[in-house]
TrEMBL record:
Pfam families in UniProt: EF-hand_7 (PF13499)
Keywords, sorted A to Z: Calcium, Repeat
GO CC, any one term: myosin II complex
Domain EF-hand: 9-44, 45-80, 82-117, 118-153
GO MF annotation list: calcium ion binding
Descriptive protein name: Nonmuscle myosin essential light chain
Signal peptide: none
Domain of life assignment: Eukaryota
Amino acid sequence: MTEYGLTEEQVAEFKEAFLLFDKDSDGRITASELGTVMHSLGQRPTEAELRNMVTLVDTDGNGTIEFNEFLFMMSKKMKETDSEEELHEAFRVFDKNGDGFISASELRHVMTNLGEKLTDEEVEDMIKEADLDGDGLVNYDEFVTHPLTQLLPLRASEGLE
């Protein structure tokens, strides 16, 4: 791993993409080329994300991004992508029937398999807490806002046994 937590292969891939857009080989790309570079690497930042990245990276305001700044930025973006993939995977674990929603019975089933014996009331409370639109189910957006494992009920008896 490099200083940015990237593998040597990732650094080489990023360098190759960076150099494609560094037309004069001065080790810099313009801010306007950043989106094109990131798209070539499989990243899909929004315009707002691009502006934010440039603001964070281009500290001297000269409109160019040096390779080390680009590596730092890409390492942060890769970590965000990893976290998002982990959330999707966690959602799929709870969404047993793959319909895009987590029901009380699916939640109870998964929590039981994790060794959490929850009462019906505790399961319903967890669903209600995460169910922002009130349909009795938890969709992916609600899950991201309120990951169900963070809603595990606190039991007064824990730690006293």
